[in-house]
C-alpha cells in the first residue's frame, strides 16, 4: 500500500508568502517493501519499467513490483544469488530478464530472473564496486563489464565460455559504470572516462575537482544517459552535461585521434551534494540533493528534489522540494540514490529505510492543488485543455470564492462566462447574489434571450433591489430588458409602494415605460407629461395614439408647442374641432393653433374666433386677415374693432358695408391721416366722398394744399379753390397751385403728343391697307366660284374667260355671278350667327 508523502516547497525566496505550485507528487512505497526495510537496509537499487530491484546491507537482492509487492523469481530461491556483505551495485538488461550484482565480497552474479540458462557467478577476490550489462537488446547477456583495478569486458563465445578482455587500465579502481551503445562511461579516483568499444580506445579523461577536506572517491558519482549521445554526470556538487560527437574534418586531421570526442556543453555547481540525477525535459534535470548545511544538533537536513534548468555554464532552480524520509537525520550523501523511468517521468528516491516515488503532477492533481490554493483562473485554464475535473465545478467554486471576497462584479462576469444557457444553473447562482444583496452586480450579465429566459421572479428580484438601492439603475434595466421577462403590473405596484420624491423623475419615466409595455398608453402619456419628457411625442407617433391625446392637448402644447402643433395640425390624425374644443380653455394656445391652422387650411371654419384672437393677441395680423377672409360676420368684427378702437380695421369694415362717409370721417377725425383719406376717396372714386373731403379741408387750411395735390386726375381743382374763403390763409397754397398748373400743362402736352401719335398711326395704317388692297392676288386653277361652283379660270381656250372679283376675306367670284358687291359667303354666315342658326364658317 502506497502512502502520500508531505513535502515542503523551497522554491523562490523564503520571504515569499505565496506557495509555489508543486512539480511532483510523492508517494511512499509500502507493502512487502515495508517488511524488508524493517529488518534490512537498502544499499543500492535498479529501476526497470517492469519492476524494482533492491540490494541490501545484508547482501540480499529483492525483486518487487512498482507498488512494493514481492515478485517470485530466481532471486528469491536460495542463497546462491546473494552476497555475503552489502550489495554495491545492481544493473538490469533492457528486456528485464537478467540482473547483475556486485559486492565487496568480490563476487559478481549474473542472474536470470526466470531462467538459469545464462547465469554466471564470478569471484575476483577484491572489492567490486560496479558492473554493467550490455544495453543492446539484440545481444541478450552475452556481454557485461566488470570494474575493479581495470575495466574488463566479458563476452560469451559459441561454447558459452566467458572471454575476458581488458579494455583500459584504471587510475586506482573503478567506482561506477554506465554503458550506452558503443560508449562506456566510468569513474575512477581522478575523474570520468568514456571508452569507445567500436574503436577500442578511451576518448579521454575528464578530471574532477577534488572537494576541500575530502576525497573524491568518498562521493558516489552518478551518471545517466539522457539519449545515445548525451551523458549526464553529477559528482560531489558539480553537474556536467557531455555530448559525444564525431570529430570534424579539422579536428580529425590534427593527429591520430579517436573518431569521437567528449564535448562538455555545460558545467555548473549546485548548492548541495548530488545524490542522483535524471533528465526531465529539454534543458531540465531532476536532481536529488543532500544539503551541505547541518541542523542545530549537527544532524543531516532533509534531502531535496530539485528541478534545474541549465544553460551554457549556469543553472536556475525551477523548484525545490524538501523530502521527509525516514531516518534522514542519520544518513550521509552516499546513502541516497535516484532511479527513474524516463518515458513515464517517474523518479524513485531511494534511502536506506525509505523509498519514495516522485511523479510529475498530472492535470487533475494540478487542478486540485490550484483549487485548494484559490488559483481558480489557472485551474480553469488547465481544465479546458484536459483532465477529468469538470470546468463548471471549478467555476462554481470560483464564484463562491469571489463572493466571499466581495468581488461581486468579477463573480457576475464569471457567471456569464461559464453558465451559458443553463437556466437551472443561472437561477441557482443568482440566489447566491440574493443572499449578499448584490443582484445589481449580476444584472448586466443575466441572460435575457429566448434561448435562456429565467423565471420572472428572478428578474423581479433584481428590479426590486435596484428600486431599493439604485433608482437610476432601475430605470436603465426597464429600458434595456424585454418587458416579457417579468410581470410588469407587479413592478408598477412596487414603484407606487416605494415612490420617493427625490427620485420622482426616474420613477415617473419607469412608470411611463411600463405602462407603454402593457399597452396602457394613456397612463404612459400622463407619466411623460408629469415628467415633462418630450419622448411623449415619439410614443404618440410610434403607436398612433391620436385618439388618446384628445384630453391631453393643453399639456402637450405646454411641453413642446412646435412638436405638439405638428401633430395637432394634421387633420387626418386629429380633427380641428376636437383641438379647438380643448384649447378654448386657454385662449393663448387657441390663438397659436388657429393662427397656424389658417396658414394650411383656407376653409375659414374658425375665422370668426380668429378675428377676436387677432384683436387680442396680434393686431398686426388683423387687418390683412380681414382683407383676405370672407368667413366672418362683418358686424361682429366691426363691434370688436370699435370696442378695441382699431380705426384702420373699422375703416376697412365700414367700406365693405358701404358706410363710406362714416369710414372717411373716421380717417379724417380719428386717424387724422389726410393722405389715407385721399387714397380712400381714390379707391371708391365717389363724388360724395370727394365733396366731404373738400368740405372738411376748407375747414382746416393746413390740409388744403394736400387735398389739392391729391385730387389731380380725379376732381376738378376748381371745386377746392372755389370753396376757399376770401382772405383765408392757406399755407403753401402758391406752391400747390404752381404744382397743379404744371401738372395740367404736362397733362395737356401728353395729350397733344398722344393725339399726334394717333394721327400718324392712323395714316400709316390707312396707307398699308390701301397698298394691300392694290396688290395682285394669286388664283389657282383648282379654285371654284362659290356661286356657280365652276372653275374660276380654265386652261381651255375655247371657253370664254370671265372677269374675277377678289374680296379681302379671300373669296373669289366670277364677275358675272355677283349681283351686288358683297361676299355672299361671309354675308350668309354672319346672318346665320345673328339669327342663332347653326352654320359652318366660310371657307
From TrEMBL:
Main subcellular location: membrane
GO molecular function: zinc ion binding
Entries under Gene3D superfamilies matching the protein: Tetratricopeptide repeat domain (1.25.40.10), YVTN repeat-like/Quinoprotein amine dehydrogenase (2.130.10.10)
Polar residues: bias regions: 1-11
CHCR repeats: 552-706
SUPFAM superfamilies: ARM repeat, WD40 repeat-like
Topological type in the membrane: Peripheral membrane protein
Domain RING-type per the UniProt entry, residue ranges: 785-826
GO terms (BP aspect): cellular response to starvation; endosomal vesicle fusion; macroautophagy; protein targeting to vacuole
Region spans: Disordered: 1-22
Cell compartment(s), UniProt: Endosome membrane; Late endosome membrane; Early endosome membrane; Lysosome membrane
Keyword Transport appears in the UniProt entry: yes
Keywords associated with the record: Cytoplasmic vesicle, Endosome, Golgi apparatus, Lysosome, Metal-binding, Protein transport, Transport, Zinc, Zinc-finger
Presence of keyword Transport: yes
InterPro entries in alphabetical order: ARM-type_fold, Beta-prop_Vps41, Clathrin_H-chain/VPS_repeat, TPR-like_helical_dom_sf, Vps41, Vps41/Vps8, WD40/YVTN_repeat-like_dom_sf, WD40_repeat_dom_sf
GO cellular component: clathrin-coated vesicle; early endosome membrane; Golgi apparatus; HOPS complex; late endosome membrane; lysosomal membrane
Function according to Swiss-Prot or TrEMBL: Plays a role in vesicle-mediated protein trafficking to lysosomal compartments including the endocytic membrane transport pathways.
Similarity comment: Belongs to the VPS41 family.
PANTHER family: VACUOLAR PROTEIN SORTING VPS41, VACUOLAR PROTEIN SORTING-ASSOCIATED PROTEIN 41 HOMOLOG
Protein name: Vacuolar protein sorting-associated protein 41 homolog
Organismal lineage: Eukaryota, Metazoa, Ecdysozoa, Arthropoda, Hexapoda
